[in-house]
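Hey, I'm writing a tutorial for new members on how sequence and structure tokens pair up, and I'd like a real worked example in the thread rather than a made-up one. If someone can provide the structure for the chain below, I'll link this post from the tutorial.
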Amino acid sequence: MNPVHRPLFESAPYVLHGPAPVNPAWHLPAPPAPAPGVIENDGWFPDILLTDMRDAMRLDGTVTDARLVQAVVDAILQVNRELADWQGKQAAAGITALVNVPATRINRESRLLAQYRRAVYSTAKADLIERYRDYDSTATSVSDKKSMEWLDEAPGAQRRNAQWAIADIVGRTHLTVELI
């Protein structure tokens, strides 16, 4: 046999003794894929269903799923960060999830879940309105000008709603301050 065309394994300088090394991660089952339309949260705060958010915040198909996912992820991160100290106190008291924090129940669920969703939904919607504001910012008619005025004010109203929901969760009073 021509030495140039020698089989690969015939000239191998090593021999494996025993079974090949095993990487434990190769044998672990893959984590289940998240359900479509669900943004998984950290386990303490609830997951967010995108269809519920679309319905609650009146978002139509002009907001793509990709944009909605990004806005919701950013909103969850922001709201969770604002609630981190409060969550730490609850966890120190042995509470393992928001749903387990003692609170009044409305519509068969903890008011805290409703307020958490409102904070996330409102933060995400404010972000979406701001992003879509730069998509078409020319007003050519009176009705367009009214729409533009709404787009100018709507993100602030949504952020206020989010802050009030967070304040309700942690037990702070509402306060609105405007510069004159």
